[in-house]
Specification:
317 residues; mainly alpha; Rossmann fold; 3-stranded mixed beta sheet; 13 helices; globular; binds iron/sulfur cluster
Length: 317
């Protein structure tokens, strides 16, 4: 039998966790579960609330732990069957029914229900007398984490009414809005769900014009190289003791410096290292005795991927 893989992001509804347990029990599947090491609450101060165009949480709370789960349990990688459908979003519409995710090495994903409508899903569940998450009966169309920016306003209102812990997220939004000088309407209208507000919602912003602009800061390469953690991560590129830094790719040095300063310990890069050379010690570090400078860990990283947006938020404070 296949295993049931589940990542507990730490921001799941209790009913979701129950549903996963029930399904595993009913079908006698091994539940291979991992909790996000780098949880939402730990990182929201750094990243700010996640948004539809700024889903840092997916990387830190889902894809990183998935990468670690696969690396720890499945030497040959996995083929994952995922209940994802094309009608759920524009992005999913274009995805196809099989895909690789550059954030999760070792995983090929397939959705056997890619072309199903919601009606197909419900008819199938009824026909199999299957369990479902009871939040669907409250009118939810999709159930993700309860702080999810993909939620619609009606779903968020429902959560406010029925899920007491939602207050914690409201406090985060209120604190962030206060810090930015945003009005209450930014929360009421759910505008926190976008970093760059879509054009068709711009009229809602007439009373809240203080939104998104880009800022950039340059730091000198020399300063970066003085930084002990950055020097350690340079092992991914070269033997640090034996290399002239002029020979290295400056953009890559900048990316490593961002990791050295801001790593949120999501685990995405750890899953890529075949030498077990990466470890956490107040952020990511490389064991130079194990590292062979192959550069496989240099790919996707949420703090590099979202750096300019985080920087904008920080400089704007
Ligand atoms: S489901 Fe939503 S809140 Fe959860 S990780 Fe994905 S984008 Fe973030
Ligand atoms: S993947 Fe591992 S061995 Fe390769 S450069 Fe990174 S830390 Fe070193
Ligand atoms: S360096 Fe980046 S990818 Fe690696 S654990 Fe830290 S945040 Fe995640």
């Amino acid at each position: 039998d296949p295993d049931l893989m589940f990542i507990d992001t730490g921001i799941e509804l209790p009913e979701t966790l129950d549903n996963v347990r029930r399904v595993a029990q009913k079908h006698e599947l091994t539940l291979n579960k991992r909790e996000a090491r780098s949880g939402y609450w730990k990182n929201v101060d750094y990243f700010g609330p996640s948004a539809r165009d700024y889903r840092w949480c997916c990387k830190t709370c889902k894809l990183g732990p998935t990468s670690l789960l696969i690396e720890e349990n499945y030497d040959d990688g996995v083929l994952s069957f995922i209940g994802q459908r094309r009608y759920e979003s524009h992005q999913r519409m274009n995805q196809g029914s099989t895909w690789d995710n550059p954030w999760v090495p070792g995983q090929v994903s397939a959705s056997p229900i890619q072309d199903w409508t919601a009606l197909h899903v419900w008819l199938y569940l009824f026909s199999k007398d299957a369990d479902w998450n009871e939040w669907y009966e409250k009118g939810f169309e999709r159930i993700g984490c309860w702080v999810c920016p993909a939620s619609d306003l009606a779903e968020l209102d429902k959560l406010k009414e029925e899920f007491q812990e939602y207050e914690r997220f409201e406090e985060v939004l209120e604190g962030y809005a206060k810090m930015k000088g945003l009005s209450e309407r930014w929360i009421e209208l759910g505008l926190w769900r976008w970093l760059d507000i879509p054009e068709n919602m711009e009229e809602l912003l007439e009373e809240d014009p203080e939104v998104v602009e880009y800022l950039q800061v340059e730091k000198s390469i020399e300063d970066m190289l003085e930084h002990e953690r950055t020097r350690n991560l340079l092992n991914a590129l070269c033997d640090v003791e034996d290399t002239l830094f002029e020979e290295l790719d400056r953009d890559e040095i900048v990316r490593l410096h961002k990791k050295a300063l801001n790593c949120v310990e999501c685990g995405v890069c750890v899953g890529r290292c075949e030498r077990d050379a990466l470890f956490f010690e107040d952020g990511i570090k490389i064991d130079p005795d194990k590292c062979v400078h192959c550069g496989k860990c240099l790919g996707k990283c949420p703090v590099v991927h979202f750096n300019s947006r985080v920087l904008f938020r920080q400089l704007d404070e």
